[in-house]
Specification:
Radius of gyration: 23 Å
Strand content: 25-35%
Number of strands: 20
Bound molecules: L-homoserine
Oligomer: single chain
Largest sheet: 10 strands, mixed
Shape: elongated
Number of helices: 14
């Protein structure tokens, strides 16, 4: 019998217990033996709840129980999650977590501890919720050098941008709707300013680079400046605006950024709407692949956590090698990346053409007091110099080819 503990009985922790209860038979067949949730660590008592007898308030009870083989961390945040997870690994237990903040900050360290103790640290649910992107990178795409990852990895902002395009509403209205539906947090800063996506692309970059990519080094822009007028221009251009988390090989490192992009119809991510997530991967042998599905929510995320539990149960006593060295990756300067830029300005055509040379103009009747145009391809650094020369720039959104 495999005995597990769940640390944090919130949305994901309770989902984990539900998935194990609902699919007990098939999960046990896959593991080859029974599975029991022995402890649930939480600050609350859950009086009268069927799980009440399993509830403990001190993580050391779990750490000191030699019968517990696997621990699920679903508390969120860096501390005390890091202290608890480290203690579990050090006492010879394998751990799976859904906590992107923990993985982005301490992934390399926790993997090293797991190796030292001959156990495993897994984190499938930390990126893309239920989408199996981490295992795909760690197990299925190991024959390739990954040249590019481009993902819609934040469900809240994708829902908001989809609604803005469908309804023509402004950012504030879309945010209110996302909050009413329970997608966005009361304090939605991490979602709308791109920090959540920044942590997720830092994790994916660390995996494809094999060393620590710090999320603080990822150039991050959110969607709070996107307006209904931008959406009108996007429609006129036959494009959609999406918050993309991108990591692109640049010599021996990666250029990593999170920002709103204008996506063309031909791009596989164009049709990813609502709270769905998708991650597009380009390998040097594989070519293109895309992983699509529910990027958040209790049961989809719990499904990924329990899949890790099954994997951990199958590998008790055996560490699965995973390259994520602690040496910091020097992320390439995003300003050296070449692309086209869509610009809205109150400057006139003579000034625009004097500075940007030939451009493609985009007109929408609702924005008669300004000019919209698309630049030729240039480095971001060059765009910034020209935009400063032009002045009066109301908006800039990058073009994705
Ligand atoms: N706030 C996140 C999102 C939850 O909206 O995608 C899943 O990480």
């Amino acid at each position: 019998m495999i005995k597990i503990a769940v640390m944090g009985y919130g949305t994901i922790g309770s989902g984990v217990v539900q998935v194990i209860e609902t699919n007990q038979d098939s999960i046990c067949k896959k593991i080859g033996e029974g599975i029991e949730v022995r402890y649930i660590l939480d600050l609350r008592d859950f009086q009268g709840d069927p799980i009440q007898s399993k509830v403990v308030h001190d993580y050391k009870i779990i750490a000191q129980d030699p019968e517990v083989d696997i621990v699920v961390e679903s508390m969120g945040g860096v501390e005390p999650a890091y202290t608890f997870v480290k203690a579990m690994l050090e006492t010879g237990k394998s751990v799976t977590t859904s906590n992107k903040a923990l993985v982005a900050a301490h992934g390399a360290d926790l993997i090293a501890t797991a190796k030292e103790k001959n156990v495993n640290f897994m984190f499938e649910a930390s990126v893309g919720g239920g989408i199996p992107i981490i295992r795909a990178l760690n197990s299925c795409l190991t024959a390739d050098r990954i040249e590019e990852i481009c993902g819609i990895v934040n469900g809240t902002t994708n829902y908001m941008l989809t609604r803005m395009a469908e309804e023509g509403c402004e950012f504030e209205e879309a945010l209110k709707e996302a909050q009413e539906k329970g997608y966005a947090e009361k304090d939605p800063t991490a979602d709308i300013e791109g920090h959540d996506a920044g942590r997720k692309i830092a994790i994916l970059t660390s995996l494809i680079a094999g060393q620590q990519a710090d999320f603080e080094d990822v150039h991050t822009e959110g969607i709070s400046s996107i307006t209904a007028t931008d959406i009108l221009y996007a429609k006129k251009m036959g494009r959609v605006i999406r918050l993309l988390a991108t990591s692109r090989q640049s010599e021996d490192t990666y250029a990593v950024m999170v920002a709103p992009f204008l996506l063309p119809k031909e791009h596989p991510l164009y049709t990813v709407n609502g709270v769905f997530n998708a991650v597009f991967v380009r390998g040097n042998m594989l070519g293109d692949a895309m992983f699509y599905g529910s990027g958040a929510g209790s049961l989809p995320t719990a499904s990924a956590v329990v899949a890790d539990v099954v994997e951990l149960a199958k590998h008790i006593g055996k560490h699965i090698e995973l390259e994520w060295r602690p040496e910091k990756l020097t992320i390439a300067d995003y300003k050296q990346q070449c692309m086209r830029f869509f610009v809205r300005t109150t400057a006139d055509r003579t000034e625009i053409e004097k500075i940007f040379d030939t451009v493609a103009y985009v007109e929408v009747p609702e924005a008669a007091d300004e000019i919209g145009f698309i630049t030729n391809e240039m480095k971001e650094e060059e765009y910034e110099t020209k935009a400063e020369q032009l002045g009066n720039v109301r908006q800039m959104i990058r073009f994705h080819s």
